[in-house]
Amino acid sequence: MLKIYYLICVDAIVKAKEVNNHNWKFATLMYLSAFSSLFFMSSIIISEKLFLNDFSYSLFTKNQLKDLSYVKMQAVLLYFVPMILLNYLLIFFNNRYEWLLLKYKPRKGKYITGFMISSITLALICIFI
Questions:
Q1: Nearest to 83 by CA among 8, 127, 29, 46
Q2: Distance (Å, rounded) from C-alpha 87 to C-alpha 26?
Q3: pTM above 0.70, yes or no
Q4: Residue 45 burial (10 A CB sphere; 0-12, 13-18, 19+)
Q5: Binning pLDDT at 50, 70 and 90, where does residue 67 land?
Q6: Whole-number Å distance between alpha carbons of 11 and 26
Q7: Residues 129, 46: Cα–Cα separation, whole Å
Q8: Closest CA to 40 of 76, 16, 90
């Protein structure tokens, strides 16, 4: 599973270098974190609705979540920040991306595009469940 994620990361790095050469690290980290967060959030929502009826992955009570500011804070703290840390540790810590670029061959954006489409599709499924 980690190999697939590394293939996605290598595709994202190569595409980011092509588009945004001087700021590719930040762009790669943000794009991967955003779509990873969307995928993770959608997976949690589907799990809660279909399988784990009594489980709640939340920082706040249901009454507090009626306020939009709590929803935004929860999304950032529970979904986006952990993905930024995870992506940083898996890709950029100790310049690990150099090793990844040597070990895995980029697939012309095939993996990153598939990951983006699957993340958006999963989020759309959450809306209709």
A1: 29
A2: 11
A3: yes
A4: middle
A5: confident
A6: 15
A7: 8
A8: 76
